[in-house]
């Protein structure tokens, strides 16, 4: 039973040893432990602040990336729109140039046809005139085969001619 009921001397010495231990701990170990805890707390706070800063930086980067993506999309759309407009302009210019060439070719063909028509008409007129002269020559020779017919024809012609 001695173990269960402590004596006063033992209690006294245990209290003194406990107080000395507290004094030594307060004097030598308490400050380093508290400094370690403060440093640990500062490290944790710094880490939390760094994590918050990193999170904000990531949000800013994400916002910047999104803005850059929107700008890239807008630039891509502008380039595509410009390319479409350029294509349409080139096609329209080519169609206009082709139309102008076609009109020029048609005009040249009309001019050529008109010139050939005039040349053909002139040739036909020349041939008609030549044939008319030949026919008239044959008719005149036949009708003027005798001297009497020649004199009668001269008289008829002189009668038709009026002097001014």
From TrEMBL:
It is found in: Cell membrane; Endomembrane system. The keyword Phosphoprotein does not apply. Keywords: ATP synthesis, Cell membrane, CF(0), Coiled coil, Hydrogen ion transport, Ion transport, Membrane, Transmembrane, Transmembrane helix, Transport. InterPro entries: ATP_synth_B-like_membr_sf, ATP_synth_b/b'su_bac/chlpt, ATP_synth_F0_bsu_bac, ATP_synthase_B_chain. Belongs to the ATPase B chain family. F(1)F(0) ATP synthase produces ATP from ADP in the presence of a proton or sodium gradient. F-type ATPases consist of two structural domains, F(1) containing the extramembraneous catalytic core and F(0) containing the membrane proton channel, linked together by a central stalk and a peripheral stalk. During catalysis, ATP synthesis in the catalytic domain of F(1) is coupled via a rotary mechanism of the central stalk subunits to proton translocation. This is ATP synthase subunit b.
């Amino acid at each position: 039973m001695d173990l269960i009921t402590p004596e006063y001397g033992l209690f006294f010495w245990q209290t003194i040893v406990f107080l000395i231990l507290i004094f030594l701990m307060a004097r030598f170990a308490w400050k380093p432990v508290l400094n370690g805890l403060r440093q640990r707390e500062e490290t944790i706070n710094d880490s939390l602040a760094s994590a918050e800063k990193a999170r904000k930086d990531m949000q800013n980067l994400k916002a910047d990336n999104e803005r850059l993506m929107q700008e890239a999309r807008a630039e891509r759309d502008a380039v595509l729109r410009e390319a479409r407009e350029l294509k349409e302009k080139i096609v329209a210019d080519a169609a206009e140039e082709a139309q102008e060439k076609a009109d020029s070719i048609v005009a040249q063909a009309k001019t050529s046809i008109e010139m050939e028509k005039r040349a053909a008409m002139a040739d036909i007129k020349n041939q008609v005139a030549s044939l008319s002269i030949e026919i008239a020559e044959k008719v005149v020779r036949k009708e003027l085969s005798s001297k009497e017919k020649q004199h009668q024809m001269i008289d008829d012609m002189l009668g038709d001619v009026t002097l001014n």
